[in-house]
Amino acid sequence: MDVMTVTDVGNQHSDSLQKFMVDNAAVRGELVELSTTWQQVLMTHHHYPQPVTTLLGEMMAAAALMSANLKFNGVIIMQIHGDGPVRLLVAECDSQLHMRATAKLTPDAVIDDDASMSQLVNLNGQGRFVITLDLQDKMPRQKSYQGIVPLDGDSVATVIENYMLRSEQLDTKLWLAADDKVARGLLLQKLPNHGGIDASVNDDLETWNRFMALGGTIQLKEMLTTDIQTLMRRLFWEENIRVFEPQLPSFKCNCSRDKVGHMLKILGQPEIEEALADLGKLTVDCDFCDQHYEFDKLDCAHLFATEAPIDALLPSGSSKH
Questions:
Q1: Between 246 and 319, residue with greater pLDDT
Q2: CATH 3.90.1280.10 domain extents, the chain
Q3: d(C-alpha 70, C-alpha 78), whole Å
Q4: Given a cut of 80, is residue 287 above it in pLDDT?
Q5: What is the CATH number of domain 257-320?
Q6: Can you give the three-state secondary structure of the chain, one letter per residue?
Q7: In a designed cystine with 22, which of 27, 88, 281, 296 is the match (CB 3.0 to 4.6 A)?
Q8: Distance (Å, rounded) from C-alpha 270 to C-alpha 279?
């Protein structure tokens, strides 16, 4: 992987994720900027109220930051299950930085412009944060990892920070910002020390505290109006860091007619036949890309005549009837 110094970073692709390492310290970081990718999500879901747009954009930025160090071919799926006017927020990112996201609101949702995250998804204290690592190349009997915790915090960043500290024992700090034009984020992480000497531990702690203080100088408006290359130079121009070649996130939905067919098979033939008797045909629209699928009686009969095993499940909240 090619490496640059922070002063070498120039104008890059508007949608980019850049990793960096602090020289001689167990501290790493990433910055992400989603513009085109984020706009493609909103083109499908242009009706979101502004507070929901902000939350979902922050989740997309966080998913990109969290997936950038996946060591396997797979997908990270971040979900917030809410008990308020927002019932579900989902952001997905795979190891190639292909991304998609969606949100589900209650039919009668009334959302104020200044609604907080707690008011949106944790109104009665029953909200849940779910993170799934879905391996695409599973070994026999190998299962995907899933962690489910209560919502601990009133921001996407705080919820993920608390999750990482409790579940992974990693000090992690996130700064996230999103509006209807762009989603950006900064991640700092203190890695486990392998030096084995007190001086190294002390140096790492001092470096970590210094980078936390630098990150803490970022203002929300600054994040929304400043590209990540400029942010990096402003924050870390005096630091000894190595900046890697940027990766390029992009929007991509992995829905397909075959996957929808698998989902219908899971519902079972009696339920499908009952629905066909009432509706004549079944229609399914992907919540992520709005792709439309139709299955008539002949299509459904073919599904249940096929003996192929059901080996692909859509994540919760990825499609609707």
A1: 246
A2: 257-320
A3: 14
A4: yes
A5: 3.90.1280.10
A6: CCEEEHHHCCCCCCCEEEEEEECCCCEEEEEEEECHHHHHHHHHCCCCCHHHHHHHHHHHHHHHHHHCCCCCCEEEEEEEECCCCEEEEEEEEECCCEEEEEEEECCCCCCCCCCCHHHHHCCCCCCEEEEEEEECCCCCCCCCEEEEEECCCCCHHHHHHHHHHHHHCCEEEEEEEECCCCEEEEEEEECCCCCCCHHHHHHHHHHHHHHHHHHCCCCHHHHHHCCHHHHHHHHHCCCCEEEECCECCEECCCCCHHHHHHHHHHHCHHHHHHHHHHHCCEEEEECCCCCEEEECHHHHHHHHHCCCCCCCCCCCCCEEC
A7: 27
A8: 14
Which strands make up the sheet holding 27-34, listed edge to edge? 3-5, 241-244, 16-22, 27-34, 183-190, 171-178
> What are 61-105's pLDDT values in tens digits?
999 999 877 777 789 999 999 999 999 999 999 989 999 999 999
One-letter amino acid at 310 equals I
Structure tokens belonging to residue 188: 């700092």
Tokens of 23: 């020289």
Q: Which residue has the higher pLDDT, 45 or 116?
A: 116
| Inter-residue contact 49 to 111 (CB < 8 Å) | yes
pLDDT, tens digit (0-9, with 9 covering 90-100), for 205-261? 889 999 999 999 999 999 999 999 999 999 999 898 999 999 999 999 988 999 888
Q: What pLDDT shows up at residue 109? A: 86
273: CB partners within 8 A, 6+ apart:
300
- Nearest in space to 286 (alpha carbons), one of 237, 235, 248, 252: 252
Alpha-carbon distances of 188 from 20, 22, 149, rounded to whole Å: 10, 10, 22
Look up residue 239 and give its two tokens: 């630091």
Instruction: Give residue-wise pLDDT tens across range 151-179.
Output: 988 999 999 999 998 888 889 999 999 99
pTM of the model: 0.84
CATH entry 3.55.30.10 includes domain 3-251: yes
